[in-house]
């Protein structure tokens, strides 16, 4: 059975988080001389002389309306990369605890584990890029705090079977972190609606992909109130800057525009698959639920270098286990995809 007290680090249980005078003060005031800001203003049209809301209430309220999850179940990070790091710092004891990773998958889980000196137990995906549940069960020990599942998975593009994830959620006594960075491109349902069902569920999403805001650095974690409280304690106090909060709030009004792009990206994804599969050097294209495709080729290095020469950059994943020969190609605009496909006509 999952219990947050069993997995929380002792130092975090005792931690007194940073608090500002403005957190403590609940009334009305017009003169703020508490935070050593420059009260005269900023050398910009927009005023950024005041610290931002540490708990980003307005952005969370808007996200809450879109996602159907109360603000108290939402954590915001400086990208979901920060949420990943905060999870490690909240729940994993350096040099003692371990996490389970299921490669090939998003590289930051491993980097973040290494930065935090957390051991990694790798249980590779099957040939079908699905979970090896038996292998995971064997790899879990008393010090296993988290399992990271990326669905749709980067770099393979496929979604992970929902039943398998639910099996983990029901049986693992640590956190199951489901990274849904690419969920908007998927036919699969998000796990956000399962938060009331599973106390050990953490869902990661981001504004960097479908929302087109990678430059703002805003990522989300959805979890129980208890987990979110811990994450808020551990994060740097002002982790989302004022400009990002304002712009995210503004962008989050444009749901229709984003849905339009998603439709177009899915059409362009189909078009790339249909055209690429006829090239001689393409051996396989894996079914994608994301805004990229994994393409197995006869000569990944050669194609990669040929494209770089023409100013086109794709991601060479051919050295990654289970992705031998593969390039990962992001779906671009119709014009960018034209350039890619026309250029590849001239390869060999
Ligand atoms: N998760 C996955 C699966 C990703 O591919 C990425 C970015 N490539 C991230 C998280 C990080 O997203 P963010 O920009 O929100 O830090």
Automatic annotation (TrEMBL):
Pathway entry: Amino-acid biosynthesis; L-histidine biosynthesis; L-histidine from 5-phospho-alpha-D-ribose 1-diphosphate: step 7/9; Lipid metabolism
GO molecular function list: histidinol-phosphate transaminase activity; pyridoxal phosphate binding
Coiled-coil stretches: none
Endpoints of the signal sequence: none
Keyword Transferase applies: yes
Self-association and partners: Homodimer.
Family recorded in the similarity comment: Belongs to the class-II pyridoxal-phosphate-dependent aminotransferase family. Histidinol-phosphate aminotransferase subfamily.
Official protein name in the record: Histidinol-phosphate aminotransferase
Gene this protein is translated from: hisC
């Amino acid at each position: 059975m999952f219990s947050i007290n069993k997995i929380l680090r002792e130092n975090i249980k005792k931690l007194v988080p940073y608090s500002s005078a403005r957190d403590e003060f609940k009334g009305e005031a017009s003169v703020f001389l508490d935070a050593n800001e420059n009260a005269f203003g900023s050398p910009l049209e927009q005023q950024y002389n005041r610290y931002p809301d540490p708990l980003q209430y307005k952005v969370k309220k808007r996200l809450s309306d879109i996602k159907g999850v109360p603000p108290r179940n939402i954590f915001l990070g400086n990208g979901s990369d920060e949420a990943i790091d905060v999870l490690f710092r909240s729940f994993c004891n350096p040099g003692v605890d371990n996490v389970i990773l299921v490669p090939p998958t998003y590289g930051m889980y491993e980097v973040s584990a290494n930065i935090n000196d957390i051991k990694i137990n790798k249980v590779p995906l099957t040939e079908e890029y699905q979970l090896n549940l038996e292998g995971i069960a064997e790899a879990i020990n008393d010090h296993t705090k988290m399992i990271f599942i990326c669905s749709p998975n980067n770099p393979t593009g496929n979604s992970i079977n929902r039943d398998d994830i639910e099996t983990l959620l029901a049986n693992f006594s640590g956190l199951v972190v489901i990274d849904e960075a690419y969920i908007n491109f998927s036919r699969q349902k998000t796990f956000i609606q399962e938060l009331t069902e599973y106390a050990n569920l953490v869902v990661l999403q981001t504004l960097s992909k479908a929302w087109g805001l990678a430059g703002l650095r805003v990522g989300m974690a959805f979890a129980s109130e208890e987990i979110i409280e811990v994450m808020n304690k551990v994060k740097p106090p002002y982790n989302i800057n004022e400009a990002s909060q304002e712009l995210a709030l503004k962008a989050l009004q444009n749901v229709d525009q984003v849905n339009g792009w998603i439709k177009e990206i899915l059409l362009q994804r189909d078009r790339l698959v249909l055209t690429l599969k006829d090239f001689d050097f393409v051996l396989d294209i894996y079914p994608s639920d994301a805004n990229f495709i994994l393409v197995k080729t006869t000569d990944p290095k050669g194609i990669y270098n040929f494209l770089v020469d023409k100013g086109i950059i794709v991601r060479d994943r051919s050295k990654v286990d289970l992705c031998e020969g593969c390039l990962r190609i992001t779906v671009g605009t119709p014009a960018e995809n034209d350039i890619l496909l026309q250029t590849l006509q001239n390869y060999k």
